[in-house]
Every structure is written in structure tokens, then in C-alpha cells.
Write a structure and sequence with these properties.
Layout (H helix, E strand, L loop, with lengths): L1 E5 L2 E5 L2 E7 L5 E5 L4 H21 L5 H4 E6 L13 H13 L7 E3 L2 E2 L5 E2 L4 H10 L4 E5 L3 H5 L3 H4 L3 E5 L2 H8 L1 H6 L1
Parallel strand pairs: 4-5, 6-9, 9-10
Antiparallel strand pairs: 1-2, 3-5, 7-8
Amino acid sequence: MGLAWTSMGGSTLYIETTKVEEGEGKGALVMTGQLGDVMKESAQIAHTVSRAILRDKEPDNKFFADSKLHLHVPAGATPKDGPSAGCTMITSMLSLAMGKPARKDLAMTGEVTLTGRILPIGGVKEKAIAARRSSIKTIIFPAANKRDFDELADNVKEGLEVHFVDTYSEIYKLAFQNETETS
């Protein structure tokens, strides 16, 4: 689950990914959900990073090369933009490609670079409150936002388990924790 910051405050953000076509050389990405230009670019970056991670984790898995994917961000009638859903998009794509569910009790936010670095985001307070409202107790924030979180009122931080990360590989270990512990 992703976390978003809107003019109305923080909210949770669901990212859905499904395979719509399969065949050698069919690798592509379609996006829907009223995504703005920056969010579309973030999805393209997430697709590229997901491919690289899958090549590293499962070298024989040709899912991305042979699958046309459809990434959707519900509520389709609501415009969405910004780069901070990149890490959530990668998690959604990898979950599908590897057939491994991501943790359901986890929310995350962070812009991702082509090399998998996690960049700072805005709206830390609003996103923390949104997670609490959705009964999510474990959150991943970029390491660069640690000070922003530390400065929040205690009643906002109370009961939250927060992980601060610099790279997507750290998110991978947290998002697919049950899978990596048994591997």
C-alpha cells in the first residue's frame, strides 16, 4: 500500500498490477487511473527498476520480457501525480512477477531513481496519519525524511513501526519479509 499527500491531507494509495498479454517480446507497460506526467514517469522508472531487480533475484524469470502489464491506481476519476509512489509500484510489479505476495500490514512512500535509490518525499505527517487511519502500523519512509518524522508530535508517532531506507533493496527485504526469511 502506498501513501499519498493531497490537498485534503494524507491518504492511502492502492496500486494494482496485472498481466494483460503474454508472449515472447511482449514486455510493455500500460498505465491508467488519471495519472499525471510525473506519476507516469515514476511508473516507467518503477518498471525499469523492477526488471533489474528480477534479473538479480531470479535470473531465469523472463516475466517482464514476455508480459504486457497494466498498472492501475484506483479511484480512476481522481487525478493523481507526483513521484512518491515509485517504491509501491515496484513492489506491486515484483509481487506479480515473482508470484509472492507483499506484506499487507505495510505502507510505503518514496521516489525511486533508476539505480534504486530512495529519494525524500513531502507530507510525512499527513502520510503517517493516513497510515494510522487505515490501521497500518508499519511504514517505510526515505532515510532523508527521518528528521521530518522525528519532529512530529508523539501522538502521531505513537504505535508506529517506521523503517527509514536509502535503497529499494531495503524495501524488498521488508515487503517480502516472510518470503526472504524462508529462502
